[in-house]
Structures are given as C-alpha cells and as structure tokens.
Amino acid sequence: MSEESANSGGSGGESTLTVLLAGGVNLAIAVMKLIAGIITGSGAMLSEAAHSVADTITEVLLLTALKRSARPADRVHPFGYGKERYFWSLLAAVSIFASGAMFALYEGVSTLFGHGEAQSTSPLSYIVLAVAFLLEGTSWVQAVRQVVRESKAENQSLGTYLRLIDDPTPKTVLFEDSAALIGLLLAFGGIGLHQLTGSEIWDGVASIAIGLLLACVAYLLGRTNRGLLVGRQAHPRLVRAIRDHLSGAPEIEAVVDLQTMLMGTDQVLVCTRVDFDDSLGAADLERACVRLASELTEQFHDVTEVFIEPVPRSDPELRATVLARYGDVAERWSNFRSPQ
C-alpha cells in the first residue's frame, strides 16, 4: 500500500501535462471546426465546434483545479484545499453539458425541422475531421498512458481504477477525449450520408447523437465529482490496511470504529475509535496515540490527518451507532465484538 501511495506522488505533474496537451489540441480543433462549419453550414460540424469549445473550457477549469487545490492548509481551511479539485472538475462536467451537449442538441433539432441554415458538402469538412482526429488521438493517447500507468502502479484493473480514482483530472480528460473521437466519427458519418443521400436529416441525426454523447459523459463525470465532494471513503484496500495495522498494535484490544474520507487527491483523513488495554496509564495512552498516528502517516503516504479516540467497545450506544452505519453483518466489522 505504501508503495502505491508513493507512486501516486508524481501524478500531479503528469496531470498538468495531460491537461495542457488536451487544452492546446482542443483550442486548435475548435477554430478549424468553426471555420469549416461556417463555410459549409453543416450542423454536425458546428456541433463538433461547440464540442471542442466546451472541451477547451473544461481544460481551463481543470488547470484552475490543479493550481488551487495545491495551496497549503491555513487557519480558514485547516484540512487544506484538496477538494477544490473536485469542485472545479464538477464545473468542467457542467461545462461539457451546457456548452457542448445543449448546443449540439439544438443544432440537430434545428436541422431536422428545417430551421437551420442551408448546408453544403465540401471536402473541407473531411479534411478538418481527419486532422482533428489525429490531434485528438494524440491527446487521448497521453490520457490513456497516464491512467494505465497509474492503475498498474496500484495493481488495479483500469475499470476499478477509474471507478475509485481520487484525482478526477485524468479521468475527465480521458472521457472527453474519448467522446471527442467518437463525436468526430459521428460527424463524419452524418456528413458522408448527407452527401450520399442529399438529405440533411443525417446531419441533424449526427448532431443529436453528439449532443447525447456529451450529455452522457457530463453525467458520468458529474456523478464522480459529486461523490468526491460529498465525502467518499478511502480505497477499501487502504481502509483494510489501516485497520490491520491498528489491530496489530499491542496496546489495542479492538478497533471499534474506523472512518476515512478523501480530503483531496492523495489526502486521506482517518478517524478511529479503539478500545485500549485497560491496564495502560494516561501517559501510556497518550504516547500510544501519538506513535500510532505517526506510524500511519509514515506507512501510508496518502494519510495526512489521524484522530484516535479511546472508547470502551462494550458501550451500547456506540455499538448501536456503528451497527447502524455498517449494518448488522458480523464479517463487515469483525473487530467489533463483545468482551469475552
């Protein structure tokens, strides 16, 4: 566990590189798509231009997230500013929906019902889409490299890593770049079918499909950041490791309760209630708490704050509180047991 935490230490710099590359690519692509969309009047091309504008705004928000979340703790925010990354990443998800999905859906409906501008087919559209696909592919490869490298460092499958990730930045870039590549294929298909059939319906259908795709991506990213902002527990493997470490301490008879929360990327708050050996004196108890907190922060680099509360495991109110939170399932909290 300590090894995987250490490996995550350099993710901040790589996240910045991933975001900067994606931002530069999206800005260049947005300009190309907008010019081609204005010249051809293609709804699908204009939808893709809005898509790239949304992605560019997203990268600006992600850069803001990386910078502001790195500020040190102060008197007003004693636990630091780590959750700023989640807030700005949530705004990035909203931007994808508001700037990209809504415009694409509007453009598609306007085209289908004949309220859009007259459209023409031009080789320019195909050239722009091809160049955009190559540029987006470059950004996508960088995002894939980062998440694959980090998932391997933590010995997790890619799906598990993305589901439990505490840094939404590479996930956001990966999802938006994947959506961008799929959107380009949809635009290519819509423009191509429009040229083959002479019907603008296909262009409108492609725009609507792009809008729905962006709405789906925005929802998935919004759900991820909502969970992180509300306060998600640390990775289950880290929680188990912390529990095992505490249970192995000679002064502790039982770990009664263990709560963790992500305070930011690679920042975990640990609050635990433990039943100490009753033979310990007050001074021994104090030294044990200090030593255990130090051991947890040294062994698990993601752990930044530790609070240890001595409690009697036989207390009925405390027992009811723990069982209400975790359920009356013995194997889920095997350390919470009545005294022999």
UniProtKB/TrEMBL annotation:
GO terms for cellular component: membrane. Keywords: Membrane, Transmembrane, Transmembrane helix, Transport. One of its GO terms (biological process) is zinc ion transport. The chain crosses the membrane at residues 20-39, 86-106, 126-144, 173-193, 205-222. It is a multi-pass membrane protein. It is found in: Membrane. InterPro entries: Cation_efflux, Cation_efflux_CTD_sf, Cation_efflux_TM, Cation_efflux_TMD_sf, SLC30A9. Residues 20-229 form the Cation efflux protein transmembrane domain. GO terms for molecular function: monoatomic cation transmembrane transporter activity. Pfam families: Cation_efflux. It comes from the Bacteria. The keyword Transmembrane helix applies. NCBIfam families: CDF. This is Cation diffusion facilitator family transporter. It comes from Amycolatopsis vancoresmycina DSM 44592. The lineage of its organism: Bacteria, Bacillati, Actinomycetota, Actinomycetes, Pseudonocardiales.
